[in-house]
Design a protein that fits this description.
alpha+beta, globular, homodimer, 4 helices, eight-stranded antiparallel beta sheet
């Protein structure tokens, strides 16, 4: 049976993961997409080209990110972090996190890699989700 | 760059997968959990013990299931099916799908396996999501 894990352990699942599933609400309908992310100081950072996902988060800021570890030594663990979407508009901070994200995920496309080195590229949206609640379960 | 795939290909990603991420809405907040499922005649079937997930779906029937295939020959593909939650109350149909689900996913816990052979076990909720829209993207 699955059982709850502590907030600390749930946050560790999020920290250890690199790919999660972002859940957002689009016109009263749930929408889920895979994202690459990094955890920094209690917030999940990611980036995206403009589209359905970013439109949905701008319209309904409450989102979640679910991360699981099914290959680990602990059977499986799944964690979910809830928080509010915040777009990073300040250009220096935007570049710092875009560069960090691209250094962690080298398999990004050439277009995205170009963006990281082109401060004029306006299209890539960098955002954070400030976590205010995290829960998790595990099954051994 | 990711590009859209056809509905037929997106449904094939769903059919080929066994684990997806169910997205639902819980008190105006998105909620995402991994589920095992099977696709049968245009609907996703799964089961769950009572809890947050089933409470959320009963209160807000509009849900989605996201499935991705990152290990395939096609780079990666991700698909998302949208539909309405329907609880399967009719006992014969409930047993048929519970047995099918448990035959596909032999790693279920002893408690769940017991349920499959015990028609009196009332706790396990069997449900389907009748798909009315499916979309997908791929990146080679």
């Amino acid at each position: 049976m699955a059982r709850a894990i502590t907030e600390v352990d749930a946050l560790e699942v999020i920290r250890a993961g690199h790919t999660g599933r972002l859940g957002c609400i689009d016109n009263n309908e749930p929408y889920v997409v895979p994202i690459n992310y990094l955890l920094d100081d209690g917030a999940i950072y990611s980036h995206s080209l403009p589209g359905k996902k970013t439109n949905a988060m701008r319209a309904h800021r409450r989102v979640c990110v679910q991360v699981d570890d099914v290959e680990g030594d602990f059977g499986w663990r799944s964690a979910i972090a809830f928080g509010d979407f915040e777009e990073i508009d300040q250009e220096y901070e935007r570049q710092v996190f875009l560069t960090k994200l691209l250094s962690i995920f080298p398999k990004l496309t050439p277009v995205e890699s170009t963006m990281a080195h082109d401060a004029a590229a306006p299209d890539s949206i960098v955002f954070r989700i400030v976590i205010d609640r995290v829960t998790g379960v595990e099954e051994e």
